[in-house]
UniProtKB/TrEMBL annotation:
Keywords on record: Cell membrane, Glycoprotein, Membrane, Secreted, Signal
Subcellular location, record wording: Cell membrane; Secreted
Name of the featured protein: UPAR/Ly6 domain-containing protein
Listed GO CC annotations: extracellular region; plasma membrane
Domain UPAR/Ly6 intervals: 19-88
Record field: transmembrane: none
Domain Snake toxin/toxin-like: 99-171
First and last residue of the signal peptide: 1-19
Pfam family of the protein (one): UPAR_LY6
Length: 194
């Protein structure tokens, strides 16, 4: 009776009609799985646990990344969480070991670090423009974005002053100023030589 009451209260406080829909893929012993749709009461998540790819619903406390290296045993897990129906379609990418500085949503505080993922081997600094406002953009980037290949997809005029670098945490304010100083110095010296 207690279990039924608890279940009823849970169902009543989180009605099925309002529950989130997620793709679910829980691996079998051989590592394969069949993707199905399920109802969730909280968040959708993609995740990789050891060598298993898992797709299911999760609570916020389960939306974490981490790794453990103990000599004979290594484990890395990466989770991406989202909160709209059937949003867990993209594969999870593991951090690649590179870190860059990133800015807050207002583009004011750029002192936090972010772990780069997948093919993001460059740190980027740029200026974003939204109507009449400009803001700093910092983070991780792929080579194609730094080369301008992906910039053509952007709406003209929304991102400018793109600078990329390859070192860890190389997109700090000090490094950008030093790069600008060196560029101006080389221009000045070449002008003086002529």
């Amino acid at each position: 009776v207690t279990a039924c009451i608890a279940f009823f209260i849970l169902n009543w406080s989180c009605p099925l009609a309002l529950a989130l829909k997620c793709y679910q893929c829980l691996p079998r012993v051989n590592g394969t799985c069949t993707e199905t749709k399920t109802n969730c009461a909280d968040l959708c998540a993609n995740g990789t646990h050891v060598d298993f790819y898992i797709k299911t619903c999760a609570v916020p406390a389960e939306c974490v990344n981490g790794s453990l290296s103990a000599g004979f045993f290594n484990q890395t897990f990466s989770t991406k969480c989202c909160s709209t129906d059937l949003c867990n379609t993209l594969p999870v990418q593991f951090p690649n070991g590179k870190s860059c500085y990133m800015c807050d949503i207002l583009g004011k505080n750029c002192s936090e670090m972010v772990d780069c993922e997948g093919e993001q081997y460059y740190c980027i600094s740029a200026t974003g423009k939204e109507k009449m406002h400009s803001m700093a953009i910092k983070g991780c980037s792929s080579k194609s974005y730094c080369n301008g290949d992906a910039l053509s997809v952007q709406v003209a005029g929304t991102i400018s002053d793109v600078k990329c670098c390859e070192g860890d945490l190389c997109n700090s304010v000090e490094n950008v100023k030093m790069s600008l100083f060196l560029t101006l110095g080389s221009l000045l010296s070449s002008t003086l030589l002529y």
